[in-house]
Design goal:
The chain starts with a helix and ends with a helix. Helix content is 79%, strand content 0%. The protein has 424 residues and is mainly α.
Length: 424
Amino acid sequence: MITTISLFFLFLLLGVPISFVILAASGIGIWEAGSNLVILAQQMFAGMNNYTMLAVPFFIISGDIAAKGDTSQRLIDVINAFMGRLRGGLGIATIITCVFFGAITGSSMATVVAVGGLMLPKLLERKYPRSLSLGIIASAGTIGVMIPPSVPMVMICLAMGTSVGEQFTAGFVPGFLLAGAFCVYTWFFAKKNNIPLEPKVSWGEKFKILKKSFFSLMFPVIVLGGIYSGLTTPTEAAVVSVFYVMLVELFINRSLTLREMYKIVSKSVVDAAALTMTIATAQVFVWYMTTEKIPEMLYNFLISNVSSGFILLILLAVLFLIVGCFTNVVTVVIILGPILLGALNYFGVDLIHFGIIAVLMSQIGFLTPPFGLCLFVTMKTARSSMAEVVKAAMPFLIIMLLMCILFILVPQISTFLPDLIYGG
């Protein structure tokens, strides 16, 4: 057991892809225990043999197509037309665009690239301080994974055995609260520093922009409407999202050719395969840990030393904060979630609420050095140093940590809508 854990962290520090880290550590542990290595293949197949998992590759494909097409520009045009006259309106419009575009793509990194590449030059041109502009792009890009449809949420649901529909529903209120907090901070900053207002847009021009962007705006409406109306499962909605965005970008926006579409889908399939591999190997690791009675030992330790569900969530949030500096928090939740299930149930922690905390800590992990992925993407997009991006993101990171404490203290923020719609 000690050898397995030691190798796990050694491979991780050496930069080995996480799925191979998990597989190697699990394989050595199973071999040391004297079990048949055929279990590796059996458990990997069991980890992938899930209908809901099909939603992951399809959401990734549709998100990548939207990111490479004109969807991001259309969203920016609409939101800026209506929000631009606020103090700090262009910054607020950028945050709201990141929210909607992140919800469409399910990818924080794609959001930073697509929205950041378009909006960063405009923010700087309109005399927004570079620090604020970088902070907005890096931080707001993470919010999309909280607002459905969200690939990390699907993966957490697979690990915890919870409803994807309920988890999606739970993300709305926390996601919009977080976006609202970012907008309020941007408004105060712009007012304090007297950032100029945007030119006024007439109602006639707003109507033209809305009309031009109608089909792009309908993307999340169709996908989420299908899920919540009961017409489609999350997996079926993911398939619909691919065909819908293909039709929009090929025949309405006409932003992509068939050759470009083929290249995007090819890359997306590889990315989706990497995520699927992570889930499959995590199943092997969970099986090994279960046979070694680790969940039982952890359960006994936690109920003996932790006094409440609140304390447990605080401890897990701290753990995820530390882990998020080095790897993807969602991957850690996929591994630890099933092991922690007994303790979470013992303390009466709602698993949907736990999922929201895990997603928020994943967002924070995208911004924490030295391996925050959104930091790297923003550095590349803005041609900035890590120190500059980290400093710029710090006020937003503090807001996210405060919101995490709020969500832990008031679980109803996460559970109100699922209870209302699905019955608590």
